[in-house]
Amino acid sequence: MPSIIGKALLSGEIECHYQPIVNIHQKEILYYETLVRRKNKDGILIGPLDFLHTIEKKKLAAHLTQEVFWQSSKKFSDNQEHFSLNLPLIAVSDKSTSMMLESMIRNSNFSERIIFEIQASEWIYFQEVFSLYIHKLKDLGVRFAIDDFAHGKFSFEMLDYLETDIIKIDGKFFKSGPNLVWKSTIVRSIVEYAHKNNMITIAEEIDSYEAFHNAQSYGVDNMQGFYIQRPASWDTMENKELDWLQKW
Predict the structure, then answer these.
(1) Is residue 216 pLDDT above 60, yes or no?
(2) What fold characterizes domain 18-34+80-247?
(3) Is residue 213 a contact partner of residue 181, using CB atoms and an 8 Å limit?
(4) At what angle do helices 180-196 and 209-217 cross, to 10 degrees?
């Protein structure tokens, strides 16, 4: 019996939404992150937390990655915007998916505008699996971001080994509450390291003015979150004045 994701893929219920990452000083969009949604039979959009956990088969997750890449590539191939999407280990380890992605990128004219985001938790434990594939795609102009950096175990040595281009810092460091001095010290050290190594830093989950203010005071130039702009379909995003432009 087909799973929820299997049915969604077969019936065209998978829909991509996009959320901008913005540079707060230049007031411009750095790139858009592609976020997956599922539209049910009633036309209601369901977020990833409510259905991605149902993926149990490797092939199914790989097919979802292919679908998301195909949709986002189609959307961005005719403009000059940069865009990102998640690259799970399961997709890299699936030979047909990794070869398909490489082939599509190799035959495109926008490889330098593609950014693959890899979860820090996967990156740490499967460095060798990712490293070979990363270097192959980087030769084609693709950039890479490490997602949720500083969540759990991390080290700067890991960044040297994988030659990442973008560090997305876990949103917990920007939320108000205890240990602000400790949070500030950690984030400032990441920002300093990134600047010295020509990397970009992004503050994630900026969902309030307090988080925005903290990230700014810690020296992070780029931000993403509901306070900046909620995810939306491309048609909505393309024709809407961004919330963050109205706030600053």
Answers:
(1) yes
(2) TIM Barrel (3.20.20)
(3) no
(4) 50
| 40 HSE (CA, 13 A, CB side) | 9
What are phi and psi for residue 208, nearest 5 degrees?
Answer: -155, 165
Name the residue type at position 48.
Answer: P
CA torsion sign, 223 to 229 to 233 to 239?
negative
With CA atoms as reference, report the closest residue to 167 among 227, 108, 225, 119: 119
Tell me the pLDDT tens digit for each residue of 56-99.
Answer: 555 677 778 888 899 899 999 888 999 999 988 878 888 888 89
pLDDT digits (tens, 9 = 90+) for 116-128: 998 877 776 677 7
Phi and psi (nearest 5°) for 80? -110, 10
Apex 105 CA angle, 104 and 111, nearest 5: 150
Q: Where are the domains of the chain?
A: 18-34+80-247
